[in-house]
Structure formats: C-alpha cells, structure tokens
Design goal:
Length: 379
C-alpha cells in the first residue's frame, strides 16, 4: 500500500472519529438540554398531624419528620401539622383511617377508649421492664404482630403503624404537698391518661383525663388537685412549677411508653418500597436519637426546676409504688377476665419481660451504688 493511500485512509479515519465524537458530544449536549424536560416522579407528600403544638414532644416529632425528608433526598416530604390543625387529638386516629390526614404522631393512650388493650402498647403494667424493653418486645417479641391484629382485625382500621422513642418512667407528678403514704392521695382530683386512670381510681383518686395543654390551667383554677404529664422538660414548659412546688419522680402508673406513628394504609401502600422503608426506618433512627437527647434535656430542666424555681423534688415513697402494683394486679385481672385479646397481649408481654428481665437484672451492676460512691444521694 502506498504512502498516499495510507495518508488518505488515516485522514478518513480521523474524520470518521471526529464526526462520531461530534455526534456523541451533540447527543450529550442535547441530553443536557433536554434533561429538565424529562418526566420526573412528583414528590410524594405526607400530611401528618401531631398531638403536640410545641415543647420537646413536638421537637421529637419534627426530628422524625426531618429524617424522612432528608433520607428521601426530596422525593418524599412529610409536612408536620400542629395539634388541632385539622382535627382534635381524640379524632386523629379516625381522621387518618378515613384519609382526612395521611399520618399522625401521638400515643396509644389517646385512643385506648376504643379498646383497652391499646394502652398495653404504651401506658400498661410494669412487668419489671423499661420502655426500651417494651420496644424490644414490639420489635422482636411479637408485639408488632399483636398491634397489627388489634388495628386491622379487631378494630378494622385502615392504618399502618410504628413505634418510636422509649420514654423513661413518668413522674408521679405535681401535688400541693409532699406525698408520704398511699392514704395521702385518696380523694385527690388527678390528671392522667390510659389504663393509669383505672389504676389510680382503684387507689382512691378521682381521675380526670385532660390534654397536655389544659393541665396547668386546670390546676391553677383548682379544677384538679394534682397532675402528671410526662417529664421535667415538658412539665417546665407547661409552667407546672407556677402552680405547685412539690414534684414526685418515679412511679409505676406509667413506667414505660413510646410514641406511635400511624399512616393511612392506602396512602402508605401507594408509596414506593423505598419510601415505605424510609418511613419505617426513620422511626428507628429518631427513636435512638430521642433516647440520647432526653438524657440531656430532662436532667438539665430538673436542675432548673429545683434551682431556678424552688421546686421540691422527691422520689415517690416505696409504699405508694407498692400500692400501685397491687392496684395494677386488680385492673389487669378485670380486663383479662373480660377480653381474650387483652389477656393474649399480657401473656406475651410477661413472657418477654420475664426472659429479658432475668438477663438485664442479673447482668446489671449496682449503678445506684456506683453513683452514690462518686456523687452521693441523687435527690
């Protein structure tokens, strides 16, 4: 082959390569220009109402919402609506069931009047377990399946639900004077929710179930004599220190609880599997973060209640807590004898608490003794 032929072929080859490259470049440019016009899936929006208009509980709810929104990269967006924005708290579950709301963030005690077993998934008896062990039962001990049975088969609700956020034992609450014996609480008008109301009525209290925001005004006006809500931070935000200076920590009336997050089942099933997973696993992420955050906030606000507001903080007497356990025994017997499903849940919980508690209590060193060794009496 001649040199001239080689040169001609090389020129043609280069021309072909350049034309091909130009075509690719032109195609890439066209794709770049056309990209904004390519159909993209519309952002899925979830309208979720919380039972919280402010305070740390709203913050916990927003922590969940932010995780969902960030994990999805903008393809899924949860809009948080404050308490009462669309419906009253007592109507939230029904609103989600009917699709008036897409989701809700609250606690099972707020709808236990529909079925007493609901309270077992939050404000139930203390089998010697903590809120974290309650969540362990829900996740690995059959609790989620029992919850689904209650929601779908018994109540026939069009809902999907998850649990998040282990709450430490709730204080017995705020009183006009220090409580020393079980007799001191008899006849008092007291605010609580869930099965705790039945327990404390059994102990001789007159129980009123009020939303969080109504507790402080009711006590200020003398409509109730004593009250609890949940924790030092929320209580401080409500201004309970302005209506009482006697605050009792430790109690079995609500010794373990967590938040409940529900979604309309049709709305949830219409989402992609990725979005469903984000809604589910964001609840676990928010749960872990809450378990760390409350350590900081509750302890700081308890100090503030004592030092800045002159609140007297007590540990509820052992005699009162022993009486609470006896009252729980009576209430549990009443409900298990009447409701097979209630009994089924109780038996499942007790089996879990007995097994897990045996490990936890045997394994745990004396943390209280170590604390006293270094810091003295905590109260």
């Amino acid at each position: 082959m001649s040199t001239q032929q080689d040169s001609t072929k090389r020129t043609a080859s280069r021309r072909k390569f350049m034309l091909g490259g130009a075509a690719v470049a032109t195609g890439a440019a066209a794709a770049t220009v056309a990209a904004p016009h390519v159909a993209r899936a519309q952002t899925a929006v979830i309208k979720m109402q919380g039972a919280w208009g402010g305070g740390i509980f709203k913050e916990f709810a927003i922590d969940y919402v932010n995780r969902v929104n960030e994990m999805s990269g903008g393809s899924l967006k949860v809009d948080y609506l404050d308490v009462g924005a669309v419906v009253k708290t007592a109507e939230m579950q029904t609103a989600v069931h009917k699709g008036v709301l897409d989701g809700a963030h609250f606690v099972t005690a707020y709808w236990y009047s529909k079925n007493a077993a609901a309270s077992l998934f939050g404000t139930g008896p203390c089998w010697g377990w903590s809120a974290n062990q309650l969540l362990g039962w829900i996740k690995y001990g059959g609790g989620q399946e029992l919850y689904d049975e209650l929601m779908n088969d018994i109540l026939r609700l069009n809902l999907v639900g998850f649990f998040t956020g282990p709450m430490p034992a709730q204080p017995f609450g705020w009183f006009k004077s220090a409580i020393k014996t079980p007799d001191d609480i008899k006849g008092l008008k007291y605010r609580t929710v869930g099965l705790a109301a039945n327990v404390l009525q059994e102990m001789g209290m007159s129980v009123v179930q009020l939303p969080g925001g109504e507790i402080q005004p009711a006590m200020e006006r003398g409509l109730i004599d004593a009250a609890e809500f949940n924790n030092p931070t929320s209580d401080k935000d409500f201004g309970m220190q302005d209506v009482s200076k006697h605050y009792h920590l430790a109690s079995f009336h609500q010794s373990q609880e967590s938040f409940e997050i529900i979604f309309n089942k049709d709305k949830y099933n219409a989402l992609s599997k990725e979005h469903q997973a984000i809604l589910k696993y964001a609840s676990e992420s928010a749960s872990a973060d809450m378990s760390w955050k409350y350590q900081d906030r509750y302890s700081n606000d308890l100090i503030a209640l004592k030092k800045e507001h002159g609140v007297n903080v007590y540990r509820t007497p052992d005699s009162v807590m022993a009486a609470q356990l006896k009252a729980w025994d009576i209430i549990v017997e009443q409900f298990t004898s009447q409701d097979p499903f209630f009994k089924k849940v109780v038996e499942s919980q007790k089996a879990w608490a007995k097994r897990v508690g045996a490990y936890e209590l045997t394994n745990a060193p004396d943390y209280g003794g170590a604390y006293k060794h270094y810091f003295g009496d905590p109260v």
